[in-house]
Hints:
By secondary structure, the chain is mainly beta. The chain has four domains: 1-115 and 162-184, no CATH class; 191-284, Immunoglobulins (Immunoglobulin-like, Sandwich), CATH 2.60.40; 290-525, Distorted Sandwich (Glucose Permease (Domain IIA)), CATH 2.70.70; 530-577, Dockerin domain (Type 1 dockerin domain), CATH 1.10.1330.10. The protein is 4% helix and 40% strand. It contains three helices and 46 strands. The protein is elongated, with a radius of gyration of 29 Å.
Amino acid sequence: MHRICGLGVSLTLLCVAVAQTSGTRVGVTAAGNNLIVRRQVPCGTPIGTLSSGVGGVVLGSSQFCEGHYRLPTRWPNGWEGWTAIGTGGTSYLVTLAGRSVFPNVTAPEAYLVRVGPDATSLNVRTGPGTQFGVITSKPAGSVGWAFEVHNNTSSNTVWWKIRWSDGVIGWSAESMLGAGVYLTMVQVQTKTTLNLQASGTSGVSVQVSPADLNIGAPNVTLPATLVYLSGGSVSLTAPEIAFDGARFVRWEVNGTSYSTRTISLQLLSSQVFNLRVVYSGSPPTDENQFLSGLVAPWPAGQLYQPSTYDGHTRSGVEFAVDFNRASGARSTCNYVTGWLEDCNRPMLASHRGRVFNRSNCGGYGNYVVVVSSVRPSGTPENTFYATLYAHLNYFLQQNGTVVEAGTPIGRLGSTGYSTGPHLHYELRHATLSGSTLTLGTLVRILNNPRIRLSGQPLQVDFNCRVQGLGYVGSPISGTVALGNVPANIQPPCAPYNCPGGITDELEDIPDYSPSRSEAEIPLTLTLYLSDVDGSGCVDETDLLQLLQHFGQTWNGGEDINWDGIVDDVDLLLLLQDIGRGCGTEQ
């Protein structure tokens, strides 16, 4: 290793060390822009010049020639030759993390990295690209462990996933062509990977201590992959009873069984542990499978922040949740650094069920109820779980249609009592009686260990307040591919006029900050199923629609009693309800 020192002695270290081990990656700094590559010997004829931000690989030890130490190097364009390290305290080359030359940089180990020398501050993002939201920015001199790499060939950029010294985990660019190097490597350390699975349960959350590089949380929902620096130890504790009622049996570590719920692993070297926690007991009930299997109601690749506030419901602050898409997220309060405009984004059904479109222009606005076939324990046979999605701009499914989990059902908006685009989300008991569906008991949806959205706990931190949003919690990722989105169905309540005309396209408006109204949520809602078209009024239009499908097996609102066929029972129910809801809001 050759060391070039400036006059500074601060902790930001003006003294830059360039490793000379064959295979070490190096990058050209801004000061080294147009760096000459020389042929064969250190002072040979020039081959050409390199732009700042380019990364190469060291081929051997340095030699001194004409006032410069020079390294034999190989570059992405195929050049092999000698390049000057620097002079007079100025570095032309600095050491980079990883192995190989772009675009095939790999990360077989973990790398301590420091921000500098060409970045006064470095953005930390939720993903490996500028299209992802900014979590925070790190000033020059900040350090963290880089342990996962992404080669972004479209932008000729190497991105690193880094756990920073303050616990923030995110992605940062290593350098930029023409701009120089943003991250320099300080130290290399081997890493240990833990692959965790569970069997005999529909889901389990394991306590880990200490937190790993990758997730950084003390509780990890399985399956999961954890990454640690080798040389330490980690303990993992499985719960006695999983949230679906299954009981702990044993741990299996690389095929060896352990009967204690807490196990400790010594991470002595670079290795992979395959762990499985086994549960047994009564098979999970339909109810537990339903609650733990709810799908996050937004597409894969999107990250939404849960929030609630005092007075959100009369049942309690944890009985309803609002969602907005996060432009960035942290593992601790205040979790977010900004918001993306969400208006008109497709919202998805969290489970299989029958869709009912309704409007209340002074309350929920345009809302969708999806009624499942799963019965809450201790309730009558005609009571089912249902999810509610409020403040929508448009509907995407015909009223009464049966949909699968992940199906687009509406577009997010700000109709009804709402002060900014967001999704209001509830879980209720829905009771069917004749032609009426009564939405009654609100289920505690926040901080409920039985409930998962795409396998992720739905939690808020009541010690964490964000202005305009109330209490917020850890963001939740979408997991279902969006697929085809049906045409908009115009609802009775006028859709919210999105600021700037934003529709489906991703638009970053960092200063946008939605706030929450304090309108009370009704304790019960009555839906007339004979309102076939969901207009809010049982009238001749509904009768005509029903007659058009009379005698048919049908997936739609015309099948009022849900028996799969439109027949005289449905017709009688509708005729009994003619005029209901007309002139009132549902």
